[in-house]
Automatic annotation (TrEMBL):
Membrane topology reported for the UniProt record: Multi-pass membrane protein
Organism placement in taxonomy: Eukaryota, Metazoa, Chordata, Craniata, Vertebrata
Job of this protein: Putative odorant or sperm cell receptor. Odorant receptor.
One CC-aspect GO term: plasma membrane
Coiled-coil region list: none
Protein name: Olfactory receptor
GO MF, one annotated term: olfactory receptor activity
Cross-referenced Pfam families: 7tm_4
Chief localisation class: membrane
Length: 316
């Protein structure tokens, strides 16, 4: 690795290029970005509003879903507006501080969502495998502590990223072929040794998202084992329905990331714009699809949404 070139000034301004190779298609590409953002903002805002205002939804599962909705709002708002500015106005300029801020919120929110999905898996485990102790195990105080633990974990493990990026001198190109700032994508443009960044980023991924995924897998092995032992067909269908919504959300969160990692590892001949599009799917798909999946699959939420919209329509 090259040693830092102290004779060259370090860049304090970067230019996000959007999706190189598809510049002529930026206007058309912006349409699914805009649509997904509108659906994510409207869907998650409505979901959070209904859960907070409808007393019948003041249960652990819905509180965790509310946390997920807030995280989805932060994740989509951190990335999509800047991407649309690049597509529409060629406004790709971003300061180093702005880039680091975007890195922090993207990664912290991503890890927070992983923690929330793990909490939701634990919620389903207790509800199905130990229903008599459900309200005792998942009391209001426990839910608050879990929420705080998720936030503190995500902030504490990602905060070092800020200092790891800020310490780097950027004396090579300041043109970033992406729609948003990502830790390693930015670090690769440094004229210094980035091995600490690489190993810390990998350790964070393994100790948070990968561990969460494994724990969720173990939880669902126990959950499905308990579900298929239920004597009542009605209880079986109800349990599979609630678990199906959660499994759908988990799939939307983890599968795009898995495909992105596979493409980066083995797709050396894949055009760069494919890697960038896959990375954006990770940012766009979960916030857009999560409220749709829960709105369609969960009867209580579906009924509350219909009731709220119909009452607002009558007022108009």
């Amino acid at each position: 690795m090259a040693t830092p070139n102290h004779t060259s000034p370090s860049h304090s301004l970067f230019i996000l290029l959007g999706i190189p190779g598809l510049e002529d298609q930026h206007t058309w590409i912006s349409l699914p970005f805009l649509l997904s953002y509108l659906v994510a903002v409207l869907g998650n805002s409505l979901l959070v509003f209904i859960i907070m205002t409808e007393r019948s939804l003041h249960e652990p599962m819905y509180f965790f879903l509310c946390m997920l909705g807030v995280a989805d709002l932060i994740l989509s708002t951190t990335t999509v507006p800047k991407a649309l500015a690049i597509f529409w106005f060629h406004a790709g300029e971003i300061s180093l501080d702005g880039c680091v801020t975007q890195i922090f919120f993207i990664h912290a929110t991503f890890i927070a969502e992983s923690g929330i999905l793990l909490a939701m898996a634990f919620d389903r485990y207790v509800a199905i495998c130990d229903p008599l102790r459900y309200t005792t195990v998942l009391s209001r105080a426990v839910i608050i502590r879990v929420g705080l633990a998720v936030v503190l974990r995500s902030f504490s493990v990602i905060l070092p990223d800020v200092f790891l990026v800020k310490r780097l001198p950027f004396c090579h190109s300041n043109m970033l072929p992406h729609t948003y700032c990502e830790h390693m994508a930015v670090a690769k443009f440094a004229c210094a040794d980035i091995r600490v960044n690489v190993w810390y980023g990998l350790s964070v991924l393994l100790s948070t998202v990968v561990v969460d995924a494994l724990l969720i897998l173990v939880s669902y092995i126990f959950i499905l084992n308990a579900v298929f032992q239920l004597p009542s067909r009605g209880a079986l269908q109800k349990a599979l329905g609630t678990c199906g919504s959660h499994l759908g959300v988990i799939s939307m969160f983890y599968l795009p990331g898995i495909f992105t990692i596979i493409a980066q590892r083995f797709g050396h001949h894949v055009p760069p714009y494919i890697h960038i599009l896959l990375a954006n799917v990770c940012m766009l798909a979960p916030p857009m699809l999560n409220p749709i999946i829960y709105g369609v699959k969960t009867r209580q939420i579906r009924e509350c949404v219909v009731s709220t919209l119909s009452s607002q329509w009558k007022l108009c």
